[in-house]
Structures are given as structure tokens and as C-alpha cells.
Amino acid sequence: MERGRGALGPALELVHTGRAPTRAVLTAELGVTRATAGAVAAELEALGLIEVDARPGAAAGSQGRPSHRLSLAPDGPVVLAAQIHADGFRAALVGLGGRMVATAPGCMTVPADPAHIIDAVVEAGAGLLRGTGRRCLGAGLAVPSAVAEPEGTALNPLHLSWPAGAPVRELFTEALAKADVPGPGGTPALGVTGNDVNLAALAEHRHGAGRGARHLLCVATGHRGVGGALVLDGRLHSGSSGLALEVGHLTVNPAGLPCHCGSRGCLDVEADPLAFLTAAGRDPGPEVSLLQQSRDLLRTEYADPAVRAAAELIVDRLGLGLAGLVNILNPDRIILGGLHRELLEADPERLRAVVADRSLWGRSGGVPILSCTLDHNSLIGAAEAAWQPVLDDPLAALG
Amino acid sequence: MERGRGALGPALELVHTGRAPTRAVLTAELGVTRATAGAVAAELEALGLIEVDARPGAAAGSQGRPSHRLSLAPDGPVVLAAQIHADGFRAALVGLGGRMVATAPGCMTVPADPAHIIDAVVEAGAGLLRGTGRRCLGAGLAVPSAVAEPEGTALNPLHLSWPAGAPVRELFTEALAKADVPGPGGTPALGVTGNDVNLAALAEHRHGAGRGARHLLCVATGHRGVGGALVLDGRLHSGSSGLALEVGHLTVNPAGLPCHCGSRGCLDVEADPLAFLTAAGRDPGPEVSLLQQSRDLLRTEYADPAVRAAAELIVDRLGLGLAGLVNILNPDRIILGGLHRELLEADPERLRAVVADRSLWGRSGGVPILSCTLDHNSLIGAAEAAWQPVLDDPLAALG
DNA sequence: CGTATTTTGTTCAGCGTCGGCACAAAGTCA
DNA sequence: TGACTTTGTGCCGACGCTGAACAAAATACG
User: Fold this and answer.
1) Mind telling me how many Å the CA of B91 is from chain A's nearest CA?
2) Domains and CATH numbers, chain B
3) Quick one: which of A54, A65, A221, A275 has the most CB atoms within 10 Å?
4) Which nucleotides of chain D does any protein CB come within 7 A of?
5) Residue–nucleotide distance: A380 CA to D26 C1' (Å)
6) What is the average per-residue pLDDT within B345-365?
7) Are B243 and A364 in contact (CB under 8 A)?
8) How far is the CA of A29 from the C1' of D28 (A)?
9) Is the confidence at residue A27, as pLDDT, over 50?
């Protein structure tokens, strides 16, 4: 157990993201000798993070001795993941590999101020934790707002009717301490907190439709406004102060609606669920979320010419915004979430054509545009962010 | 000379960028022990890359034994740097630290096709190399066009009247082989080729106004159109296929001029030298470059209300574009080049105010906006790109 | 059906690289 | 002048990896 310490983190990440099913490919991916890869795998197994099953080989068909299978330990440690959204919150325990172990939803019955809601979601998570005997190595929280770095304050938590600048990271860390949730190294967990779309992008990159992408762009719309996120070479790019990828104020309709930013025709007001419902001539009701209303309309009444025209209008605007982003960021894959995902699936070719048409030289316009594939990807992303210290240095985190 | 091999590259980079004036700070920056830092410095000195002067201490005023001074070897190796622009070309030899050792300009007397011009600039560089007895470790070329990766073709060399898709990297490498220019490891140089604004950003980040910035955005306009570049954590971000930061097609004037991209009011046609001259009511003449005409007008006739109004108009449009980029990229510094630099210096407050006003929450709008400070920054940037293999692994490159 | 071949896992020796420590050197401060 | 502070260097040991030899487990082939 002295061998293979430096490569411990990269090795765990490879198994975590499913890129190292056997020791043989682990050897190749790490670029080390078989001896080292074997020692690393043994160490990770000793730490209780992975398992080595001698029985089932990789894939039949190749000759030579079959390689043993590496898998994540089914009873390994977990992290506490939490998400707050317009309609409520959700807590979960998530193991390595993005596996959701337990989850508990909650609605907004508690007072709506940040401290109470964060306390409630952490308490829900701590309850799950008490239910299982598994070790907890950290905690992450996803909020529907830009989160300023390094302060950890929520700058525009609009759907939550929270005050701008709410110190969400601080509140989360305090709630974790109150609930005795442990973090890496045995110390109390410090609450990793981030924007929900950013964290969703991270999750999709590791376990979803973004796997293998070098530069991944995610765009999504849930309730109001449009969010973006960018993963560069496997790491989230959130800018120098956490405010990158505020894509909602790209101009997509010069003669369009005024936006609170002072301009007109921003993506935020021209391509979100409200814009779709309005374009389709429907009055949004207060009973269910705007996303749900839009989704229902799109799925059940797409044959209606007015609905279809509204969808195409929003797709055209979204395509204009995506083309602008492609020209600036040149990603090699785009993933859409929320209503944008539904619109993509309703008419994949139209969106791709608009993006290709408005990107320079059409070349980078050929970028694949996909739907996100993970359920609760913001929640999984919050867990990913919480796992990061463990992936960076498993020994220190387990210590 | 057995110690300190892994830290060799990082150490050289620190001295190269002026961040390690003494062994003491080298120790701190590398995060190693004094013993290792000393061994690394000794190794770099043995390789002929740096010098250790025992005489002059760092800065007086602190107590304790004064640290020896680390400096770049004045007669160390060089790289061949080349730049092609609308009015001609320029070749140079550049040492570590961005020090121009020798330079030779050239004009467009040779036939204007890519192969001839690249042959001419390489031959000029090879001539400089024969003039000095210094070792050459690589070569870099800056062209005023997006360069597709990994092919190395120039996609829009508009000002050069070259065919789109000219294989500039291939031509450059062939010319280097023809002229017997050596590269890292003693093998023939493989010609590193990139967009001029991208390379200028790299140079400014290492030796100019961008030093110390984590996320650096550069925007510049020379002849026609507007170019952008982004340095993230010290590395150039050129996207998945080299086409990132094509910022010229951000909409800054919805009712503006039609652009060849199919839209209207793009930064490319609304904030370049031609747009400025036109706004000022001047007919651009064919004798000198548009940049030169704009610069002269701005410097000599800024008192003229029409000129001033034109400058403010362009500044407002540029500010709108920069604000859009700030919202997406959240850099911690912006550097302007070409006419944009002149406009910034004519009225710094106006541009900063527009950017702050149109960025979200004003917060990230407070990003510092500076002029570039290096002469020939694209040329120095081409050299930086050529130095990269040496900085990554000095031993292999010197081999 | 047995042997050759291929690929994988493990053990062990060796060594390069770095940290830690002790000591020397070269200044400042009182 | 002497105490203190900071820097440079030599030496030893430990850690982490490579490389080679050997063993194991499958397929391919006669």
C-alpha cells in the first residue's frame, strides 16, 4: 500500500466516470505500468471505494487472459446533495458514479427565507444519512441563481423571492455544522454551493450526455430566464468571480421585449417558458410551474398550428443565441435542458439548421446538440462538486 | 543534477515570466524545499537557459542573507517568430522573457500567395539566425485569420487576399524545413501557427498588461473586423477547433449595417476602423492603412466635434460588445489593441461606464480595461507559442 | 485434446526525485 | 561585536514509480 499514491486521484476519477472498467484500461488511461495500476486499484479497494471482481471478465471476443472488473463499492461513502428550486427542494445521498442512494423531496411549507429553507433541506439530508449507516464525505447545494465567488452569495435568486446577495454558502455550511454532517478528512463539511445549471453541466459531463466532450456548453431554461454553463477540459468554468455564462442577455430579437437589463429582445425574455406560452397565445396559469405548462402544451398540442409556430419561433431565437455562443466559445458539444430540451426533441433538425446557418463558416455550426440524459442533474452535479476533494486526494479526504 | 526534474518546466516558466527574481521566491512559488529549488536552478543554469548572479541581492530593506538573482541567460537560445499582416510581414528572433534579439520587416513585394510570403518571412528569419550564433529551438507564425485546429488552415485571411482554407501551418513547416531551421530536440522545427490576436493575448498575458490575470480577455481591431482572444489560467483558449472568440458577430446596433454573416449591426462592421472613419464623415483613402488613418484622425482632430462624436459612437458600440462578453466569460481583466486601444485612451471613463452599465449587476462590469503594452505583441506571442515545448519540458527540448 | 500464443496480474529489485535536517554563509539590528 | 534572520548546500532516507521475471487464465491452432 505504498505504491501508487500520486495516481490515486486520477484513477478514482476514471472509475468514477466509468472510463476504467478493468485494470487493463486503467493501466492504459493512467499511462503507468501494470504494476502501478494494480497497486493503485488495491489501495482504492482497501479504502473501501472500489471493488475488484475476479469473476466476470470485460468483454468476450478478445484473446488473452480476461481482465478483472473494476466497479464502485456498492456500500461506499456518500455525499449529501441538495437542490433548491422554484417549487421546493430536494435532498439526496449520492455515491460515487453519480448513483443516487436515497432521496427526499420537500415543498415550500417552511418560511421562504434562505436560512429556513437551507436548514430544512440539510435536515432532510441528515435524516437520510441517519437512515443509512454510510459514511458521508461532503455536501453540495444547487441554487437557481448565480453564485458570486469567492463569497458564495446568491446574486439573483429571483424565483425564490430571496434577497439578492443572500449568503447561501455560509448558511449551508452553518446548517451542515448544526446537523453534524461530516466532510472530507473527518472535519465538518464545508458546503460547496453553486448555480444549478453549472452543476447540471458538471453532472452531464461526468455521467450523462456530455461524457467525453472536451468543451461542453449547456443551456437550459426552467422557470423564467435562460441559464448557461461551460465545462472546459473537465472543469467547470465559472469565470473569475463566478458570473460567467450569464447567457440570458444575448440579443436574439432586436425589436423584442424590453428586458430588465436595459436592452431589448434578450434571450432571457424571448426564449423562456413564459415567452413560449405567450407566443402560443396561452395565458399562463398560477397552478403549475411554467415549465410544466409549456411541456404539457408542447407534448399534447404540437399538432395545433399556433403551438407549432410558437415552438418554431422560440427555436429560432434559441438558435440565434446558441450560434452566438458557438462563435465565442467553440464548444464541441451542446446539451440542452428544461424547455429547450423539449423544443429540441420536438424538431431537432430546425434548431441544428439555425445554429449551423448563423455560425461562422458553418463549420463549428456542425456541433452536436443533444438533450440532457440525467434525472436530477443539478442534484447529481451538487454531489459531483462535493466529491471533488475526494477525487483530488482520496487519502486526505478519507483520512 | 539528478534532483528537480519534474519542476524544471514550471521553474523555467516562472523565470521566463519574471515571477521568480530570486531562488527564495522560486522556492515559494514552486512549493518545494530550498534544496530542490537550488538544484532546479543549477540544472537550468547548466542548460544555458538562466544565470545565477551571486553579487546583486534582491531588494535591500529586508534582513537575513540576501538571495542571489536569477536572470535569463543573455546569450541563450532563441526562437524564430514571424508575423504576416495586411501591409507586409516581419520576422524576428526572440529569446526567453519575450526579448526581441533581432528583427527584420518586409513588404509585399513578393507574389501575394501564401507559399511565397511564408517562404519569404521564413527566409528573412533564417537570415537573422545565420547572423547570430545562437541556437534556435522552434518557430511560430501569426496570421490575421482564424486558424482551424487541428488542420492549421487559415479560414478567413481576408486582408491578405489569400484563398480561404490556405494550409498555413503546413506551408510554414515546409518553409522551415527548406531553410533548415531547427526545432526542439534538434529535429526540424514544426511550425506553430495561430491567429494574431490570440497570440497577442498570450504575449500580453506573459509579458505585458495581462500579467497576473487569471482570465484575460483581449479585443482588438486592426484593419477590418474585430478579433478576440481569451487566456484562461495561463493557457490560450481557442476552442475545440480553433474557432473560439470570434467576437465580431455580436450584435451591437440592431438597426445597423448588414454584415456578411447575414445579420445586422455586428461588432465587425460597427466598431472597426472603417466604421469610425465613416462615422466621422471621412472618406478612407487607399494610401495608408485604415488603422493608421483612424489613429491619425483620433490623435490630431479629436477636438473636432464630428470626430469626437464618431469616437463616442464607436466606444458605445464596443462597450456593448464587451459587456456581452463580460456576461459570458467573466474575465478579470480586459486588454484592448489597435484602434480600440486608441479609443480607450482618448476617453477611458466612457468605455468603462458603458461596460459597467450593461454588465449584469454592475459587479463584473468593474473589470479593469487596459491598453496593451507590448510592441509587436503578435510577434512576441508567436514566439511564446514556439517556446511552449521548451517550457513544458526543457530537457527534452534541449536534448 | 493438447500445445502455443496472447494478455493480464503479481512479486521483487532498483532507482530517480523529493523532503527533512543539519550546517554554513551573508546580511541586518541592537 | 554578538544575536538574529534568512538563504544556500550536502547528506540521508522515504516514497513512488519502472522494468523484468514469473505465474495465471483465457483463446487459437494443429
Assistant:
1) 30
2) 8-72 (1.10.10.10), 78-198+377-398 (3.30.420.40), 210-371 (3.30.420.40)
3) A221
4) 4-11, 15-21, 24-28
5) 39
6) 86
7) yes
8) 28
9) yes
